[in-house]
Design brief:
1 helix; alpha/beta; single chain
């Protein structure tokens, strides 16, 4: 089975579903944010989830991305990404 690939970014992207991972005192959490601008007229306003467990957030982001045909990006300042969730890559400018 092919693993999902997710681009890692450092800030909210207006043209993608943003999955932000964070480490809290009681564990790892995530927030799914879909800007209205990413949905190309499919949303009346930005959508932002509550803080939820990372596994549930990944599933929710993938479902939303598949339903709306929008890419997903990952913001992971605490380096919490688990390779079991898929491949995380970062865009590199070519020289």
């Amino acid at each position: 089975m092919t693993k999902n690939r997710f681009e890692q970014v450092d800030e909210i992207q207006p043209d993608a579903i943003n999955l932000t991972l964070s480490q809290k005192d009681d564990g790892k959490i995530a927030v799914v944010h879909c800007p209205k601008t990413a949905a190309q007229g499919q949303l009346a306003a930005d959508l932002t989830s509550e803080e939820i467990p990372v596994d549930k957030a990944i599933v929710a982001a993938i479902q939303l991305a598949n339903a709306r045909k929008i890419p997903i990006v990952v913001i992971d300042p605490d380096n919490l990404w688990n390779p079991q969730w898929g491949t995380l890559w970062r865009y590199e400018e070519e020289d």
